[in-house]
Each structure stands twice: as structure tokens, then as C-alpha cells.
Amino acid sequence: MTEPGPSTTAAEPRVDPNRPVDPKTAELRAEKNPLKRFAKVLGPGLITGASDDDPSGIGTYAQAGAQYGYATLWTTVVMLPMMISVQYICAKIGLVSGKGLAGVLREHHPRLLYPAVLALVVANTLNAGADIGAIAAAINLLVPIPAIVFIVPVSLAIVALQVFGGYHLIDRVFKWLALALLAYLGAALFARPDVVRVLAGTLIPTIRLDPAFIGILVAILGTTISPYLFFWQASQEVEEQISIGRRRLRQRQGASGFELKYALWDTVAGMVFSEVVAYFIILATGATLFVAGKTNITSATDAAQALRPLAGDAAAILLAIGLIGAGVLAVPVLTGSAAYGVSEAFGWKSGLDSKPGRAPQFYAVIVAATLVGMALNFLGINPITALVLSAVLNGLLAGPLLVLVMLVSNDRRVLGERTNGRLLNTIGWVTTGVMSLAAVGLVVTTIFG
Q1: Burial 233-271 (b: 16+ CB within 10 A, else e)
Q2: 170 in a domain, yes or no?
């Protein structure tokens, strides 16, 4: 996917020659050490990829491993180019247009935007509530205190980080939280998997026509390519530009080939990280729970508890730590992407780089979504039911939203000369078709599964 070229402002005439220079670009050009240069590249793409492995996603991957062993490992390989393409397109929309995804859709496809944003807010709130409950349950695995005690403190801490932390602090915290997901690699090693069977499950696709297997494939696809990530990625690229002084839209519009190249590297790194974590969750649970016949796993915490007698306390603890880090990373991304969507749809000021007094509606959505999600844990609502409803809404939203993303990314009024190349278009439209089919499959398996 070598789309970004060495073009300059001549290829993208909307670049403001007087806009503030990105110090990160200068650092990258000057850095000779490839490892240090790679570390400097990491930004919105890494955070987006890591947030994709939220507790609900972890639960889905754990179910796949527990129920089918290594038979679904190949899905992580197949979905990787799809994830990279979609998220890079969203990053490019944010970089070149200077607006978040909802802001661009408001200008070019307003009739379809508002139902999409409504579905996004409902799905994200339900998902955030389930993830808050999962964080509390994971803490309970480490500390013998009822999980319900941690619901309110966890929720308030997450809100405080978003409202009072500022973009730079949040960016640093999120990058460190992403490292917690590496715990799943350690858990997989403790599981002592069968290498030959692992390679077979990775390289040879397994397709079974029974509804349960199709259902888990659809669930994996839906939890991996999620609409909230589209909004988050584009908006975070805008945040990055604002953080270096490009506060006016005119200053943010346009992107050099150098900026797009490193945005692609960042996106690739984030999506590879996301899929590696998903791979090792399936591997760890397939090597232990499936082998032991413990296939009745309904959540990530169930998987951590079931692993304790099979792979030892170390594996269970690693899973719990990874689950806590994933949840604390994912909840702000869920509520934040909802806030970006709503604020951009209505033309309100938005951004984690803005003080609450300057973007009151944006922060109000964050607080409301988090508190409603928190309250769901006290209302006796089954978290699995909430996640199923969230998955259905996301599944129904993903296909149509991807159509809009593809249309926008090929619209010269939005991206000028930075519209998609042939390879990016091919993978993007294939992903759109697959997600549309998955939505049909999700509805069928939800109703008849």
C-alpha cells in the first residue's frame, strides 16, 4: 500500500504555505536511527488499533478460541489489510480535509449523517457500559473486593482524565495503556500451544457452514472493524494538527506526501498491533480452554477465571491486567468518538485539546455517555445483552458508513489530488462489501442463533 508519494504542495494546492510547521516532521527527517524514527511515528494509529481490542472484543476472541481452538486464527491475517485500508482512509480524510469524519459528512452527505451518529452514540454508550463492568470484574480478579465497588471510581477516573487531562497527557497515557495488551502474548506462551496446529489454523482458512461458526466469524469481523474507530481516527489526526498550532481550518487543509507516508506507517503499526493481540488471545484460549473442553465462555473475565487452573495464576493475572488496560483505553475512545460525531454533526466546537469551557457540548456528550454507561451496571441489564445490541447496531452501521467513507475518499472536492489509488480503492470496496454481508449475517445469527 504505497499510495503516498513524494508530492508537495504542487500536488495538493490547498496546503497553506504559511501554516505552522510540524516539529514531528522535522524530527522524523533528522532521525537516523530507524527504531527511534519508528517510535516517533506512533500516534493516532497505534491508539486506534489498541482501543479496538476492548473488553468486548477480547471476549469475542476468547469465545472463538474456547469454542473452536485454532480454527479462527486465520481471520486475523485476512482482516489485517482490510483494517489498515479503512483506517488509513479515515486518517487521510482527517489529515487532508482538516475536519473529522462527521464534519466532512455534514458538508457532503448530511441526510445520512444524523441517523448514523445516533446509532453510533447508542452503540458506544452500551459498549462503554459493558467495558466499565469488565474493568471492575478484572480488578476483582486481582483484588478480593466485589466488582460493583469499582464501577463508580473507574467511571469517574476515566471522565476526569478526558475532561481535565488535555490532549498531550491523554495521548501519553493511551500509549502506555496500549502496552498492557502485550500481556496476552505472555498468557499465550504460558499456555504452551501446539505449534503445528497453530500454523495450520493460521495459514489454512477453516469455514464451517453451521450457524454457530458463521456467527463467531461475523462477531470477529464486527468487533474488529468498528464504526467508532472511523470517527476516532479521523478526529485524532485533526487533534494532532491542532496541537502543533494549526487551529484554523485553512491551516489544516492539505497534507504533504511525507505526512501521509508517516500516517500510513502509524496506521499499519496500530492495526498490526491490534491483530497480533487478537491472534494471541485466540491462541491462548484455544490452547487451554478448548483443549480442556471449557467452551462455555461468555466474557473476557470468564476466560481469565477459567485459565487459572489450566495455565496457572500467571496467565490469569496477565489476562486480567490486559483486560484492565484495554478497558481504560477503550472507554474514552468509545465516548470520545461519540462526542466527536455529535459535535461535528451539529457544528459544535470539539476536541480534547480544548478546555471544557470552550467546548461544553463536546465534553457534555463524553460525560453523559460515560455516566449512562456506568448506570447500566446498576440497572440489572445483562452486559452480554448490551454487547449483543451494540454489536447489531455497529454491524448495521458499518456497511452504509463505509460506503460514505469510500465516496468521500474519492471526492476531489474533499481530498483534491489525494483521492484513493487503485489498490486502496480495491481493498476498501471489498471491505465495504464484506462488512455489508456481515451485517446480514449478524442479523440472521442474532435472530435465529
Answers
A1: bbbbbbbbbbbbebeeeebbbbbbbbbbbbbbbbbbbbb
A2: yes
Tell me if 26 is assigned to some domain: no
Asked if residue 365 is part of any domain, the answer here is yes
Count of domains forming the chain: 1
Tell me the pLDDT tens digit for each residue of 252-309. 788 888 888 888 989 999 999 899 989 988 998 888 888 888 887 776 677 666 666 5
- Domain span including residue 164: 44-448
Task: Look up the pTM and report it.
Answer: 0.86
Whole-angstrom Cα distance, residue 411 to residue 420? 9
The C-alpha cell at 203 is 495459514
pLDDT tens digits for 320-349? 787 888 888 889 999 999 999 999 999 999
Which candidate, 345, 392, 361, 372, places its Cα nearest to that of 125?
372
CATH number of the domain residue 95 falls in: 1.20.1740.10
Asked whether residue 35 is assigned to any structural domain, the reply reads: no
Question: Which is more confidently placed, 186 or 432?
Answer: 432
